[in-house]
From TrEMBL:
<feature type="domain" description="Tubulin/FtsZ GTPase">
    <location>
        <begin position="9"/>
        <end position="68"/>
    </location>
</feature>
<dbReference type="InterPro" id="IPR000217">
    <property type="entry name" value="Tubulin"/>
</dbReference>
<dbReference type="InterPro" id="IPR003008">
    <property type="entry name" value="Tubulin_FtsZ_GTPase"/>
</dbReference>
<protein>
    <recommendedName>
        <fullName>Tubulin/FtsZ GTPase domain-containing protein</fullName>
    </recommendedName>
</protein>
<keyword id="KW-0378">Hydrolase</keyword>
<dbReference type="InterPro" id="IPR002452">
    <property type="entry name" value="Alpha_tubulin"/>
</dbReference>
<dbReference type="GO" id="GO:0007017">
    <property type="term" value="P:microtubule-based process"/>
</dbReference>
<keyword id="KW-0547">Nucleotide-binding</keyword>
<keyword id="KW-0342">GTP-binding</keyword>
<comment type="similarity">
    <text>Belongs to the tubulin family.</text>
</comment>
<dbReference type="InterPro" id="IPR036525">
    <property type="entry name" value="Tubulin/FtsZ_GTPase_sf"/>
</dbReference>
<dbReference type="GO" id="GO:0005200">
    <property type="term" value="F:structural constituent of cytoskeleton"/>
</dbReference>
<keyword id="KW-0493">Microtubule</keyword>
<dbReference type="GO" id="GO:0005874">
    <property type="term" value="C:microtubule"/>
</dbReference>
<dbReference type="Pfam" id="PF00091">
    <property type="entry name" value="Tubulin"/>
</dbReference>
<dbReference type="GO" id="GO:0005525">
    <property type="term" value="F:GTP binding"/>
</dbReference>
<dbReference type="GO" id="GO:0016787">
    <property type="term" value="F:hydrolase activity"/>
</dbReference>
Length: 68
């Protein structure tokens, strides 16, 4: 049985200062919801639940274990 891998992309368009501020707030919220710290590392307690891969909707893991 083959595994299907879906490539996902999120495109954010920010217009003006207000748009940039709203976009920044959204990405901060995504990080908080998925347990990703400002340095790109996932919190240890978030790593325990290996069944939850919802973070892959917005983030990809690098070879060094950081999420971008």
């Amino acid at each position: 049985m083959s595994k299907i891998i879906l490539q996902r992309e999120v495109v954010s368009v920010h217009v003006g200062q207000a748009g940039v501020q709203i976009g920044n707030a959204c990405w901060e919220l995504y990080c908080l919801e998925h347990g990703i710290q400002p340095d790109g590392m996932m919190r240890d307690e978030q790593k325990v639940d290996s069944e939850d891969d919802s973070y892959s909707t917005f983030f990809a893991e690098t070879q060094r274990g950081k999420f971008i």
